[in-house]
Amino acid sequence: SYCIHIFNLTKSHRKEKKFLAELGKLIINGTPQQKLIHSVLSAQHIYRDYNQKETAIQIERTNKLYNNLNNNEKKEVQFWYKTFMKINAYYNHISNRFDLALQFYLEYKEIAEGLNQMDSVCNAYLGIGEVYAEQGDFDKALENYNKALVLSKEIENLYEIGFALLYTGKLNEKLGYYNKAINNFEDAIKSFQHSNLSQFTIIGFLN
Fold first, then answer.
1. Element (H, E) at 78
2. Percent of the chain surpassing pLDDT 90
3. What is the mean predicted confidence (pLDDT) over 119-144?
4. What is the mean pLDDT of the chain?
5. Cα-based angle 81, 85, 90 (whole degrees, multiple of 5)
6. What confidence score (pLDDT) does residue 206 get?
7. Which residues lie below 8 Å from residue 146, measured CB to CB, with a gap of 6+?
8. What is the pTM of this model?
9. Cα–Cα distance measured from residue 189 to residue 54, given in angstroms and rounded to the nearest whole number
10. Were both Cys, which of 40, 88, 143, 197 would link to 201 (CB 3.0–4.6 Å)?
11. Which one, of 101, 155, 151, lies nearest residue 128 by Cα?
């Protein structure tokens, strides 16, 4: 049931918090890279709590840790730094700092391309599109949603295809192109279903 689904998510979140606390104790004397990774994971956890003040504090801590790494150490943690750029982008996005959000989404995309993680590149295009949509630049928004759709089809990622269609549908709905929006939503549902997402997750995405 839906209640059980929410309970499991809450339980998982509590386990994650406990794990991060225990991990923090273990790496007190750890390497700078280990401390950076722990800080990124902590920022991600706090962000999911929608605690903007604590997220800002944790982002600042993580920035300091990253800036203190030498070039070789920075190369070793690029995957985690990519995740951190995504958190930065999301945080600034929900805080309506669109210029900063766009800057971090672009850096997130660049790092993902360097790591050849095309699913993350798709995700970055969607974020960039959302920023443009909220600024009223609908042409650039659709352009980036389309880039995400084309790339997600190339890599056959049904999950990202579903999101690209969903975001396109929401924008078409906003612009009054209701038939296009309905087609987008129907195709998104099919893609999500084929990607084995739960029914409740799909409903959440569409609301």
1. helix 78-94
2. 44
3. 95
4. 83
5. 145
6. 52
7. 164, 168
8. 0.77
9. 35
10. 197
11. 101
The tokens for 75 are 């190369």
Q: Is the pLDDT of residue 136 over 90?
A: yes
What are the pLDDT digits (tens) for 143-195? 999 999 999 999 999 989 999 999 999 999 999 999 999 999 999 988 888 87
Query: Would you list the DSSP string of 37-62?
Result: HHHHHHHHHHHHTT-HHHHHHHHHHH
- Residue 173 in tokens: 């709905």
H-run or E-run covering 134: helix 118-134
The residue type at 2: Y
Do the beta carbons of residue 128 and residue 144 sit within 8 Å? Answer: yes
Q: Are 124 and 164 in contact (CB under 8 A)?
A: no
For 20, the token pair is 């991060």
The SS3 call for residue 95 is coil
C-alpha torsion angle, residues 167, 4, 83, 17 (rounded to 10): 150
Question: C-alpha 2: how far from its chain's center?
Answer: 24
CA distance 92 to 201: 25
